[in-house]
């Protein structure tokens, strides 16, 4: 763990890391901005439970009173869920000011990766990542998540990206940033609510062991930068493509009509899609996050097993 006076790692997470036990980072924008209360709190706790069931320790990440927290108490999760959108959505650019002003922040994929890396956590599970928005050729609206994936060595397990984004441009941007896009058990990038998008991934991987090994190879080469694992939503929870696409098109039309810009764009589109599709998309959303948490936890277990093996080899106990 990097020494950092602003970092506050929970005792459970700190002792797991010190003992070389598996830990999975989880984000908090999804709690404060991604789902309504009380489903947001129930989901955050269920996701932590799913990580534990697969043998890893969950580290939900947020900024509370200016502290960069890795590992939240139940009360802190409840607090973030209840305050909802009153909590600042915090990406990389917000960290210095939230800390200097002792404020709260709900961390996006980008800022969760930063805090996870500070704490020494390698694997992170979320729902969907930010990306290149449709129309970015004129708006320049590209999520800071993509830059972070290019610079911070954390594996992000997601369900692909929602087609509120331009998925083709998002993949181009990731390629430029040197981020491998990995399909778990698939050759195709999943599109969050649906298992297919029509776009291919860079690598198909079918085992957690290979995910961990590839990540470890990048780490040993000091390549820097993350990896993006795209895990398709389980078939039984996936949504009808036409239905979800028409809701997304409507949401984008409304956001353009209302002149929504900057950091409001993603939350606006997500909220509109949810409003247009009701509880149906919320259930899919919850299920895919659980599915990603399990994959991340199993991968974290494989990663720790690899490290243990390396240590034994070092001490001459293994050939
Ligand atoms: N996409 C989703 N669900 C989410 C987000 C994106 O399908 O919850 C959230 C994540 O926290 C992500 C952030 O990191 O939105 C990206 O916001 P922006 O596009 O403003 O960078
Ligand atoms: Mn943006």
Topology overview:
Elements: E1 7-9, H1 11-18, E2 23-26, H2 29-34, H3 39-53, E3 57-64, E4 67-70, H4 74-83, E5 88-90, H5 95-100, E6 105-107, H6 109-119, E7 123-125, H7 136-139, H8 144-151, E8 155-158, H9 167-176, E9 181-184, E10 203-205, H10 208-220, E11 227-230, H11 241-257, H12 265-277, H13 279-314
Parallel strand pairs: 1-4, 2-3, 2-7, 5-6, 7-8, 8-11, 9-10, 9-11
Antiparallel strand pairs: 3-4
Helix pairs in contact: 3-4, 3-13, 6-8, 10-13, 11-12, 12-13
Q: Find the CATH superfamily.
A: Indigoidine synthase domain
* Major beta-sheet overview: 9 strands, mixed
**Assigned CATH architecture:** 3-Layer(aba) Sandwich
CATH class: Alpha Beta
Q: Measure the end-to-end span.
A: 29 Å
Q: Which structural class is indicated by helix and strand composition? A: alpha/beta
Q: H/E element string? A: EHEHHEEHEHEHEHHEHEEHEHHH
Q: How many discrete domains?
A: 1
Using DSSP, what is the number of strands? Answer: 11
The dominant shape is globular
Bound compounds, each kind once, are: pseudouridine-5'-monophosphate, manganese (II) ion
Task: Provide structural commentary.
The chain is α/β, with parallel strands linked by helices and 319 residues long. It has one domain (7-310): Indigoidine synthase fold, CATH 3.40.1790. It is 49% helix and 13% strand. It contains 13 helices and eleven strands. The chain has helices at residues 11-18, 29-34, 39-53, 74-83, 95-100, 109-119, 136-139, 144-151, 167-176, 208-220, 241-257, 265-277, 279-314; strands at 7-9, 23-26, 57-64, 67-70, 88-90, 105-107, 123-125, 155-158, 181-184, 203-205, 227-230. It has a nine-stranded mixed β-sheet, sandwiched between helices. Strand 3 (57-64) and strand 4 (67-70) form a beta hairpin. Pseudouridine-5'-monophosphate is lined by residues 27, 29-30, 34, 91, 108-109, 127-130, 143-145, 162, 192, 263, 266, 270.
